[in-house]
## 1
Amino acid sequence: AQTVTQSQPEMSVQEAETVTLSCTYDTSESDYYLFWYKQPPSRQMILVIRQEAYKQQNATENRFSVNFQKAAKSFSLKISDSQLGDAAMYFCAYRSNVGGNKLVFGAGTILRVKS
Amino acid sequence: EPEVTQTPSHQVTQMGQEVILRCVPISNHLYFYWYRQILGQKVEFLVSFYNNEISEKSEIFDDQFSVERPDGSNFTLKIRSTKLEDSAMYFCASRPAATYNEQFFGPGTRLTVL
């Protein structure tokens, strides 16, 4: 079974600075998808960014980018120019492209943004 | 922009009672999911549903749980006899097609079992 590990329970960043959240995963599959979800205090799950495993190019969405290292099974999220509204819980998630479509989530990282 | 809705936002029930959590997925979506998140813990998959049947379920999804799409728009999760440990946030999600990867999440229902 696939597992997702987020080793940083909590991170802090100064407003306008850059922060990187770590995620590693374990799988024997070669075709899969990876996601970062943001969960603000409202607890709504909001998709931040996605990465297809077959794509070598790292995904980017405005201030959010990933560093996808397939061989190392690593999928980190970089937030540039951090804003107060970025403060939230961030979950890394894995989705197989074979069989079931469920998302497997990591334990999450709380991001605090200091003004 | 279409969104997944869930009702109620908060449900309080007594242990042993039945609860039904309701979700209205985005209208042209075909794949439906329930996840739960116990306070302070990770989000866990419960069940996926496609073509009017369960396509996958987790170990958590035992005989006390059931899902239904009764009228082509609602997608419900029923817990027959609630336990204290069922207290959690329950999220519904939907996805339009097999080739589309993103699951769209609803705002969640907070279930409190007393």
## 2
Amino acid sequence: GQQVMQIPQYQHVQEGEDFTTYCNSSTTLSNIQWYKQRPGGHPVFLIQLVKSGEVKKQKRLTFQFGEAKKNSSLHITATQTTDVGTYFCAGPGGSNSGYALNFGKGTSLLVTP
Amino acid sequence: NAGVTQTPKFRILKIGQSMTLQCTQDMNHNYMYWYRQDPGMGLKLIYYSVGAGITDKGEVPNGYNVSRSTTEDFPLRLELAAPSQTSVYFCASSPLGAGIQYFGAGTRLSVL
């Protein structure tokens, strides 16, 4: 079945440094979604990418979807302490799983002031 | 608009006890899901439902059961709790297949 892998597993940065997490799927995706989970919280939707090569920005966050629609990345410019949390990428499974999301294991970001 | 509501937030069970985790959504979404999250891991699908009266197993269904009698409610039943079921449980809903999912706040369960 579809597997979604993320690297790195952990990242510790100084406030103001940049951060990037990478996501790879074993199969071509119809879309890829990114979620953020704060410590002790629940996953919260950030963005959905649908088109091959798509790039979307949300303030300091830049999301990319690969040309083959099998990989994606999230880049944060000039991290802030409010960016702390775990970032998950997820790709929808097929109709045989109700299109449930297959999540990567996430990248936990720690930002030191 | 409450979104997805899960109860209880925390629970401690003894081995062999049973309980029901409640999940209610007020967004009229057809698709609902139960995931479990273990430390350092992503979320794994337990059960899903594509509409009232329709449920099916996900990746890790053993030891769990679900029902979907209404669009709003999707309870998860744990029978004969085991320590391996210690986890955080999230319910999610979506208006579309492969669409954005909205998560509840989670139920943190310990089985001792």
